[in-house]
# Entry
Amino acid sequence: MILGVCEWLATKTNFTAKNYRILFVLMVLLAGFGIGAYLILWLVKLISKE
# Structure
C-alpha cells in the first residue's frame, strides 16, 4: 500500500493484494522479517521496471 509492492505482486501472481498485505502483517508480527522482505521486494520492483 505504501510502495505498491502488494499490488505489483498481485499482478505477477494469482493472489490478491489483500492476501499479500495480510501476509506481510503476519510476517512482521510473528517472525519480524516482513519489513525486510517488503523492502527487498520494493527494490526488485524498482529494478525490474527499468
About this structure: The chain has a mean pLDDT of 86.
